[in-house]
């Protein structure tokens, strides 16, 4: 195999009460990444999109992952990667994770899959480190494993793929900037034990609901008493959109990643689409451009769509 | 049905990282409770044990539950209950919960089961209120439902029975007094977000492990970074017993309820029994009398063993 093309999905990290531990893959939006195995140890990164991301390998999220793999695995080969990015940087939908996870997954595939999934996650995390300063796997894990993943720990690596319920995801990305660093800094360092206990009841309920395919339990558990009340202030119309989504029949939802995107889970496609319309109208009203996406939870994660 | 006899199991609340939300039923120890339906609205409580518990209904854990049921359900009947208590009061193994849950379950059975399990829990909670001042369901829920239960909320009542893994439980009850009020007061009101995130990763892992029957994951998740480091100071030899249990092959474990009992989970009966011996020896060494129990997780909870 000398050439492959990947479809790399967007991901929702910090799933409501599952702050820092639960994430899921969706179908839409997604990036496309074309890989070519080179005989020389060069790393070439090209972007066809207009986001102006750096193409110098050491400054590119995919590039640093490939450089790290080259070094650690003593590779004589190089890689050319053409990235067609559709997941907007800064959306909170795992744009940098897609590049990082795609790079590690694609290189591994071209080399004949010498690495386990956990090792692919390990290398992809260097891309997240470049993008955000933190070597986290919140988005990378669901991107690579698909479905909903629990990142119990990254050191040692302990990723648990959960069941992938047959639910629709509506995501809206309003065109406002929420810096990940601001979203981190705004959080309180200390919380009350009482609120923590409430939160872990919800997490336990959410994981049980996911594993049992109990949609009502998932809905009753999608409740974040610690992070959302603080971070949602940074996202215009968050409360209105959440309230209206629940009225329209959403099981629940919240901030995607550290925002500004908001996601909602629904049992029916019709509900998910009504929510999408409502979200767009809500931002139209205040002249904020927004992009909405409706798709199912993506049980597969990154997929090879062409190979030669 | 005019007479029944119940076997009412001990329970382990606050399952390690599942503080205030996760509990499980065991087979041993257990109480026996004999019920007789009376034509007159009298409540008669008798104890055959020597624990000196009050028999006046309004001051007895089972008695207040029956009084509350009588009042709420406008019963013309009364009940005679003979309690053979084997679960020692103050052990942290759900002794008061057994009396409370047994009373509500037994009365409901004699009346032809007009109440749902959630309603039985509701009435039993009045017994816990008398015993500890707090109307909690941490022990009552697993006692009534069996297996491992998640008490997501008691208001509104939201109890989720989880899977019941085929594991052995070793419990040791050292004869030292840990007052529930002291065990509550010693806890910090505030915790760091960082430790809370670690804790909810463990809870998510524990619930996933329970649902998937993944014993390794259960073991990796039985880790409490918030409550145990504080409360374990009240229990002599806690650290030594935990370390040695893990060395002997336990998956993990911790404080049962608010102590002083300690429990450990193991895959094999042989391991569970070795741990029991080690626990008893550890307390023998320092001249503290102790009682040890080895049984499986009890998937059924309270059982009717005789009826007439």
Automatic annotation (TrEMBL), chains A, B:
Pfam families: GHMP_kinases_C (PF08544), GHMP_kinases_N (PF00288)
Location of the GHMP kinase C-terminal domain: 207-284
Main location per the UniProt record: cytoplasm
Known pathway: Amino-acid biosynthesis; L-threonine biosynthesis; L-threonine from L-aspartate: step 4/5
Keywords from the UniProt entry: Amino-acid biosynthesis, ATP-binding, Cytoplasm, Kinase, Nucleotide-binding, Threonine biosynthesis, Transferase
EC assignment: 2.7.1.39
Subcellular location: Cytoplasm
Residues in the signal sequence: none
Residues annotated to bind ATP: 88-98
Protein name from the UniProt record: Homoserine kinase
GO biological process: threonine biosynthetic process
Protein family: Belongs to the GHMP kinase family. Homoserine kinase subfamily.
């Amino acid at each position: 195999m000398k050439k492959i093309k990947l479809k790399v999905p967007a991901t929702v990290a910090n799933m409501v009460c599952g702050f820092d531990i639960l994430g899921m893959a969706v179908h839409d939006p997604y990036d496309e990444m074309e890989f070519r195995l080179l005989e020389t140890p060069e790393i070439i990164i090209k972007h066809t999109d207009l986001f102006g991301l750096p193409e110098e390998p050491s400054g590119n999220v995919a590039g640093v992952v490939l450089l790290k793999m080259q070094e650690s695995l003593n590779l004589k080969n190089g890689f050319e990667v053409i990235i067609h990015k559709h997941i907007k940087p800064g959306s909170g939908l795992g744009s940098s994770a897609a590049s990082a996870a795609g790079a590690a997954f694609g290189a591994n595939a071209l080399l004949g899959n010498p690495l386990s999934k956990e090792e692919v996650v390990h290398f992809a995390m260097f891309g997240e480190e470049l993008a955000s300063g933190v070597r986290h796997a919140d988005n990378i894990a669901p991107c690579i494993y698909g479905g909903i993943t629990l990142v119990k720990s990254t050191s040692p690596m302990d990723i648990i793929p959960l069941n992938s319920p047959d639910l629709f995801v509506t995501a809206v990305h309003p065109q406002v900037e929420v810096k990940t660093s601001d979203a981190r800094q705004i959080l309180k360092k200390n919380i009350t034990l009482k609120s923590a206990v409430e939160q872990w009841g919800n997490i336990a309920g959410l994981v049980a609901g996911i594993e049992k395919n109990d949609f009502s339990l998932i809905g009753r558990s999608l409740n974040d008493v610690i992070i959302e009340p603080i971070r949602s202030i940074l996202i215009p119309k968050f409360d209105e959109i959440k309230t209206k989504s629940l009225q329209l029949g959403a099981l629940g939802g919240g901030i995607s990643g550290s925002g500004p995107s908001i996601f909602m889970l629904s049992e029916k496609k019709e509900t998910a689409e009504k929510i999408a319309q409502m979200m767009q109208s809500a931002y139209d009203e205040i002249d904020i451009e927004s992009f909405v996406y409706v798709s199912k939870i993506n049980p597969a994660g990154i997929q090879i769509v062409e190979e030669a």
